[in-house]
Amino acid sequence: MTARLLDGTDLARRVREEVARDVARLPEPPGLATVLIGDDPASAVYVRSKRKRCVEAGIRDLHRHLPAHVTQGEAAAVVDELAADPAVSGILLQLPLPPHLDPAALINRIPAEKDVDGLTEASAGRLALGRPGLRPCTPQGVLALLDDAGVALQGAHAVVVGRSDLVGRPVAQLLLQRDATVTVCHSRTRDLEAVCRTADVLVVAAGVPRLIGPDAVAPGATVIDVGIHRTGSGLCGDVDADRVGHVAGALTPVPGGVGPMTIAMLLRNTVAAAAAAPLAAVGGAR
Ligand code: NAD
Q: Model-level pTM?
């Protein structure tokens, strides 16, 4: 392995410490309402870590757990109640929802100023137009890792593999806002390897274990691996790290790269939402 490893565990810890200092300076502690519907075990684990980190940073834990059989109307009423509650700075609806519920309809009830997951149509629209707003957490974590590593984005060719609402699309928008030249690849892209090889910065969020091998990476490129998969031999990402590590200039490990950044950015968004002018705090150039 010759690539420099970009340590997300360390950066996430620094961001959380910074958030705790920002929280201490606010007149009132911010409140984060995580909403978990049902008993999906993976979701329960994610929500538990979000709540734990939020309490550690001095943010009030205003968690709501609703039964799996809750109706769309009942769930909507809870979101509306949180939206109207001044103690709630941010609302996070944990996905996936039980199949009888419509996730988009519930997410879009969250007011943009409390949308700490950045997933409402209003937040996505603001991002697409380059207007200030709260941004999705994992994509923000990707940008924070690139910035912390001192990777120049202006004029660089950034290739994003994946176009999901959660990761690929918002990452591409954030890179564009930072004046990178952005190419977005997806499952129908022809000759993925050749396109990826043209990247100075390659962000992979395809959800396919070890999709990206050394032939898809230009020597010295920076590679950010968003994927995370549990295999018989442990965790791995969307990048074949053992082999890509000999070609890339810098690489995020899995685990310990993008993963820890997501919650750190959620905390940062919650503080930004609580501050009087949240939108100015996280704005960007057009
Ligand atoms: P998704 O399944 O919603 O989207 C995957 C995208 O990749 C799609 O746009 C699809 O077109 C594209 N794709 C799939 N196969 C491809 C192929 N062979 N070639 C090119 N493109 C292909 O997934 P997602 O929610 O964006 O998540 C992607 C990965 O990131 C998953 O492994 C997920 O577990 C992980 N993830 C990690 C974090 C974190 O905090 N670290 C957060 C979110 C997602």
A: 0.95
